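B., you asked whether I could sanity-check this one before it goes into the benchmark set. Here's the sequence:
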Amino acid sequence: MKINGQRLLTNLHNISEFTDTPGDGVTRFTYSPQEAKVREYIIKRAEAAGCNVNIDTLQNIHIGLKSNRPGRKCVMSGSHIDTVQNGGWLDGIFGVCGALEVMETLAEHISNPESSATDEGDILNFNYQMTIFAEEEGSNFGSTMTGSKFMVGIYDEDNLDGLKDSNGRTLRETLESLKEIPDSPECRTPLYNRNHVDLSKVRVDFDNIKSMIELHIEQGPVLHRENREIGIVDCIFGMRVVEITMHGIGNHAGATPMTERHDALCAAAEAISAAESIVSADDNKRAVVTAGHIECLPNQSNVIPETVKFTLEVRDNDNDIINSFMDKCIEAIKAVAARRGVGCDIREHSKAAPINLSQRIISSMQSQAEARNLNYKLMNSGAVHDACMLAYHVDTGMIFTPSIDGRSHVPEENTDEKDLVLAAQFLMDIILEELK
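And here's what the prediction gave me:
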């Protein structure tokens, strides 16, 4: 069963126009007016294909084939439509448009009277559902995979009030404010579920799900560098994140001698450099460390920095290695602080264990790739995805397509169109195998 590659590309290009930063990448946060435009676009296409649309009160979108039958388990596919600030045009949305293309292709095949299988029972033994996960990037509340964490029960009522954006507005308040965004007169389905937040209706009954397949750009350089067509993910990296606050002494930038300074920013800079050196010594050259967020106070050019807060995260596919490197980094940071005479508070922020994906699905993907003579690679994912939340509960697989020069989360993010179509067709093939 062949997808419509041009339709896939048209959808991707059309949706890339929904951004708060035209000409400078794609900025589209969850619950924003630009995200509402994407919701409208996808819901209109789903309704035109005769599909059923359901939105839970966390605003995860679930779209099912009209032929889906009660009591049958479903095969899921999907990703997210939100982005980071000034991000790329493919991250997340490629997996959504790929799942939508599978949906539209299946809907056409089932309804086509000239098809060799006009009875959906001839081709589908399971239901098919695409899901769009809310707030995957964490751009609003600093928590990745928020929608899927609520779906699987990792997050609860406390997180509705504990998660806050940069203005101090809670997730609960944000959800309640969605009534201010108008619905589309062209869609039968409201763009948002504006009912009282009911987490019992957000959580997934995994007894009703057979498997989950997520399509995504690699976001790294491996497939492009090795001229591979497809990546089959076997493991998603785990991570451990700590938040470090250096407490120095603020003072006049010109009148304080170098020998009498307790500069929090210089201490932080040395600490970050030490962490980089520690993890760079990894024999496997696989573990990574990142200081991704930093705040400096008072942040004035003529004042010695008094307080600096930064995050440090270590990722790898082995939890023992993650903890070993992070523990070494923490000891080095404490040593830097003591030597420079600054205070140092270290708070555990978050952690996630590495996730091994379904060997059954991996084997199916390898068989399909070999049968089609595709140049594929079995590989890890350094980035986290909504798929890893579901992987604890159901058979889960991930398909990667090459990212040109490994660029992602930046305006330069790109993938060759032929690779996009090939990967979406591979998703179609895998979904058909799962639906048998």
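One thing to flag: The chain has a mean pLDDT of 95. Otherwise nothing jumped out at me.
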